[in-house]
Design goal:
90 residues; four-stranded mixed β-sheet; two-stranded antiparallel ribbon; 2 helices
């Protein structure tokens, strides 16, 4: 299911900005991503589904984290208020 993404969002500063730049950004290391990947692979091998969600108050309506592949080869876990970037090679 594809979520409809608004073109503009309200930023923490109070300004209306393009949706791409309205979210906070957090950088995850490759080791952090591998740890998450190992745990989810283990649970999948036991036939347990894992759903990641955000507990932040700004994400009350839709708490799901969406996995987005970027052109640079990295991965982003994205919710309504934050992007968690995994940078290849870090």
């Amino acid at each position: 299911m594809v979520r409809a993404e608004p073109a503009f969002r309200e930023h923490a500063s109070g300004l209306i900005v393009p949706a791409d730049i309205s979210r906070e950004r957090e950088i995850w290391t490759k080791a952090e991503w591998k740890a998450l990947d190992k745990v989810t692979a283990f649970l999948a091998s036991k036939r347990i589904a894992v759903f990641l969600g955000c507990e932040h108050d700004d994400c009350k309506a839709d708490r799901r984290l969406e996995r987005v592949r970027r052109p640079d080869g990295g991965v982003t876990l994205q919710c309504g208020h934050k992007e968690r970037h995994v940078i290849p090679g870090i």
